[in-house]
Amino acid sequence: MKRFYKDVSVQKTPAGYRILLDGKPALTPGRNTLLLPTDFLAEAIAEEWRAQGEEIKPAAMSMLRLANTTLDGVAKTREEVIAAILRFGEHDLLCYRAEDEMLAARQKLEWDPLLDWVATSYGARLKSRAGIEPIAQPAAELEKLRAAIAKQDNFALAGLHALASITGSLVLALAISDAGLDSRHAFSLSRLDEDYQAEKWGLDAEAADRAEILGQEITAAAAFLAAARD
Asked: 96 φ, ψ to 5°?
């Protein structure tokens, strides 16, 4: 798409912050006003608009994409989004351990403290074991996690869903959101298996490229979450 505007500004309104393109409010793909909860998030998205060249590249506008998802999607399907996020807790990556002893030891060292943190912070003790057979997590523990998720506003839910989707872990998403875990470190923790295999068999270039893209996405999702709570 050709760039159709010159000036980008942020306008404070009683309902929130708007992005103005040549003085006109920017809209989401669903034709909702791009109304944002904080000046910090609004300025971050405005900067994405300003950074566009003659051609608009949506892939380079991660903050905008998540804001659109929030306003067009999460706002209308909030309960479904909460359920989708919780599913990453039902089958959390951190609960499934390798049968390889060296990798399992690394997982225990890196992942157990996070499961302990979730148990302490939310009262939700998740079970873990070796293998890939599904683990039936206790309903009472999952309900505690659901309650924690449901307290989040729509923008935070969009960020949490993105973080959990990238890492395969609700625990890691919550640790980024609520405990200040660095997003890149969280991404590295989610890739213990892949990194272990790369150490043994060598790095696959295509897989490395994909990992770099995901690493950029998790950084953007964490930044979005922080900006929305400014």
From this structure: -110, 115
Q: Domains in the chain and their CATH numbers?
A: 8-57 (3.30.2180.10), 78-228 (1.10.3580.10)
Residues whose CB falls within 8 Å of the CB of residue 190, separated by 6 or more in sequence, listed in order? 93, 166, 167, 168, 169, 172
Q: Rounded mean pLDDT of 153-173? A: 98
Question: Is residue 25 classed as helix, strand or coil in its secondary structure?
Answer: strand
166 pLDDT tier (thresholds 50, 70, 90): very high
Name residues whose C-beta falls within 8 Å of residue 164's C-beta, 6 or more positions apart in sequence. Answer: 85, 88, 170, 172, 173
Average pLDDT, stretch 190-215? Answer: 90
Strand partners, 140: none
Residue among 62, 33, 32, 67 nearest 154 (CA): 67
Beta carbons of 115 and 127 less than 8 angstroms apart: no
